Automatic annotation (TrEMBL):
The keyword Membrane applies. It comes from Marine Group III euryarchaeote CG-Epi2. GO terms for cellular component: membrane. It is found in: Membrane. Keywords: Membrane, Transmembrane, Transmembrane helix. This is NADH:quinone oxidoreductase/Mrp antiporter transmembrane domain-containing protein.
Amino acid sequence: MEPSSLFLPEIVLVASIMTIPGLYMLTETKKSFAICSNLTLASILLFLVVSWFNPEALSIDREVSVFLLYGHFKIDAFSQVFKIIFVTVALAVSLISSSYFKEDEPHQAEYYTLLLSSTLGMLIVASANDFLTLFLGIEISAFSSYALVAFRKQDDKSAEAGAKYLLIGAFSSALTLYGISLLYAVTGSLTFDGVHAFIDGLSQGVISGNFNEVIFISSLFMLAGLGFKIAVVPFHAWAPDVYQGAPTPVTTLLAAASKAMGFIAIFRVFSFTLESVSEEWKLVLGIIALASMTLGNLAAISQEDIGRMLAYSSIAQAGYIMIAIPALTEGAMSGAIAHTLIHAFMKGGAFVVVAGLGAVGLGYSLESYKGLAKRSQLLALSMTVCLLSLVGIPPFAGFISKFWLFYNTLQAGLSGETWIIALVIAGVLNSALSLYYYLKIIRFMYLHEPVDDTEVVFPNSIRYISLITVLLLGVIFPIYWESLFEICKEAAAALMG
């Protein structure tokens, strides 16, 4: 297979994005947009899965990085793993959207076009090999997400969420771009390898000059900009309102895929490119991780709206992942990658259940979950598995990824900066704290009677995705945890170069 064939997912997405407007002009059947989106994402997912698990069939050597488009794109194990996650989440969102939105919902062609455009941006970020490509990928995904959040413009909450997301997103993009410009002014390069080589040469005395302060300031600007994308403290204020106001399928995309995209950018920038910068930024990242874990969990306790509760939970989960970056070891980064991947399934699966309840008109408050086990045992089981995984209760997948993350970060702390050990301890204590509000939801589902006796029939797409979520988090990942770790180790090795 030609190396350019690895760029096939992006090409197929562009073709599909151009096809949907054509379908809009040729047919009045709104289901055609959903079918086109589903088929596109399913075919891309099949290609990515085959290329990973059976590379010989496509003449692919996964151990060799492939550079495309004059080195702007890098196809390696790290990018391929996250592409699989992005497309999987996007496919789930596309499937539940057809059940969530009514038949007469306007602007569905635009909705699915924006969904595919957002996915395209994520794939570009995964393969970006320089700061400019990384920024363009983030913006392609972000601009599509702004419109998706405000898709139901007649809904005041959706319009407000879209406006907030746009303003804060534009501000974060400006910060990121300013940080990149400062870094370019100092290093004269926009490629990750070029910036890394400059900073490494500076630290070894090969390059003379006092540029550390400027590089540190530029990294702070990029951290602030990317911090908004992953919603860590103190850049988190937008998340609860946006998660609550956006259509639930869009919230699923934001919580599961967009957050992972933000972490890709942070991993690329801080775990490799800026690894030889002075220790100050590591301490900053550690403080942000501690604050995100603690404030996210404390704020989630008092929430009555499930969307807001899960939003604060996402802030806490981002804090857990952040503790690995100051450690800067391949093991710690493999743990961070593992928890990022599992988090996409945990949080995505939880929001699928939320979308199911919203689709049948039960609402989004905690009261809506009373007696859910009597209405649908499958959806209640799926939500339970997702919540217990988020806590890190064995034997679910969240325990495996969180253990791997904490263990490897602890090992790095024992052999290096001892203050990292305190971060790991804080992570364990915060995980125990999160059990309180997760168990509250489970108690409502199993120990309370439904608010009314109205018979509810959940859409098939919601039930099927819930079943897959239970199998992945409760059976497949726990059984094949060694294979999962190997995948994450391979991705971390590719990331760290």
